[in-house]
Amino acid sequence: MGKDVVISVTGTQVNEYGEVDVQELITTGSYYFKKGAYFIIYNESEVTGMPGTTTSLKAEPERVTLNRMGCSQQRQIFEEGRRHQGNYITPYGVMFIAVIPSKVEVNLTDMGGSINLEYELEVENNKISDNKLSLTVREA
User: Is 136:114 a contact under the CB 8 Å cutoff?
Assistant: First the structure.
């Protein structure tokens, strides 16, 4: 289902000490449009620390929903100015996390495009970092 695409993901995390961690992943996946939303599906890898996990993103004009299934499980909603919380289940245990997005930008068409998120990340109700997630999709 969907078309084969190349997906580039760049995640930037700045912790309370100002230390910056950047992770980049380029992978292949699937991309399609259904009921007013674009869907992006790809497999995580050793690079992201989540091998055996499939990530799907549902991108609507003002909301992005991330779902992870497999070795790690997570459902996270990104809506500008709205705090969303949930559990992040890993092989090492469960963490209670929340995101407070300051930017949710979806620029997708049938040909591909980009998603840009900026958000504060909390773990167990403590701010951990300020994050940016940029994802681009293009036909393979």
Answer: yes
